[in-house]
């Protein structure tokens, strides 16, 4: 299987939108309007005129606020990973107990918050390749660690879009903290070891 992983840029916006509009949720249409905006959700948006998630994500792509990686096969996007500097995720600032972040305020952390693979491409190792690429680039970019937020308990494959504990453990992550909604897992980079 030949595929290429590329960073999301404003120039790949049309490919990203096509993936979310026509491919990603063909087997789960209830989630078709997500556009991977959740972790960028800001409470101040409640005071603004209504916009669709699609319109908001276009703004984030154009400004560079949405970062991550697209997987291409035969010229078409078949996978996505939302990975960004942790400080760029509004939801992590607004929705999680600040005590959970007390030990990393002076560290450079990359967060991985979502994986999405086309229904007919699942189970082929694409998410693992995406995470490997995120880790390699984060180390080159000088990050101290990468953080992930898998859920715990029973959930279906659609709710596993944050990744699972075994998935992250396989890629060298360890459990750092537990909170009411799940786990925080980290992979330390370079010589940094927490």
Describe the structure.
The protein is α+β, with helices and mostly antiparallel strands. The chain has a single domain, classed as Gcn5-related N-acetyltransferase (GNAT) (Aminopeptidase, 3-Layer(aba) Sandwich). Helices cover 25% and strands 24% of the residues. The protein contains five helices and seven strands, in the order E-H-H-E-E-H-E-H-E-H-E-E. It has helices at 13-23, 53-63, 90-94, 126-140, 165-170; strands spanning 4-7, 68-73, 76-85, 109-117, 145-148, 174-179, 182-188. Strands 1-2-3-4-5-7-6 form a seven-stranded mixed β-sheet, with helices on both faces. Strand 2 (68-73) and strand 3 (76-85) form a beta hairpin. The longest helix has 15 residues, at 126-140. The protein is globular. The model has no long low-confidence stretch (mean pLDDT 86).
Write the layout of secondary structure elements.
Elements: E1 4-7, H1 13-23, H2 53-63, E2 68-73, E3 76-85, H3 90-94, E4 109-117, H4 126-140, E5 145-148, H5 165-170, E6 174-179, E7 182-188
Parallel strand pairs: 4-5
Antiparallel strand pairs: 1-2, 2-3, 3-4, 5-7, 6-7
